[in-house]
Design brief:
single chain; 145 residues; mainly alpha; three-stranded antiparallel β-sheet; 5 helices
Length: 145
């Protein structure tokens, strides 16, 4: 099975689970982004990156982080039985769709400029976005504690 199919299935599963609502814990906030970041960075080890490739990689990371933070700001946090929970909202879905469109546009621009696809690993992009999403959630939880 192609890697992209596994990634799509995993992302859909996470989105569905979070729309239903789930308890928030540090492990769920930190581990998925860090694992995906690690896989993405590992995938870059054999790619010879030019200065332009680095520029596209950094631009994608900055945009992905910002869009992740915007998505994280739309997530509803609430307490259930004394435990913090999170739930995606319709705004979260809208930001997800916007993030996908912006990321696609950035990827097409990078490809048109000659940046190889290997220089922009999908796992790295998703990991950066999830890290961005975790930032406002974590800050809101710390503030509430």
């Amino acid at each position: 099975m192609p890697t992209w199919v596994l990634i799509v299935v995993a992302v859909v599963a996470v989105v569905v689970k979070r729309f239903r609502g789930e308890p928030v814990n540090v492990r769920d906030l930190a581990v998925p982004p860090l694992v995906l970041l690690g896989i993405g960075v590992y995938g870059l080890r054999e790619v010879e990156l030019t200065a332009a490739d680095w520029g596209w990689l950094v631009a994608g990371a900055v945009v992905g982080l910002a869009l992740g933070v915007a998505r994280g700001a739309t997530i509803r946090l609430f307490a259930r039985d004394g435990v913090p929970w999170q739930r995606y909202t319709p705004w979260t879905l809208l930001v997800w769709a916007g993030s996908a469109a912006v990321s696609l546009g950035l990827g097409l621009a990078a490809s048109a400029a000659g940046a190889p696809a290997d220089a922009r690993p999908v796992t790295l992009s998703i990991g950066i976005g999830l890290l961005g999403e975790a930032i406002p959630i974590g800050l809101r939880l710390l503030k509430a504690a």
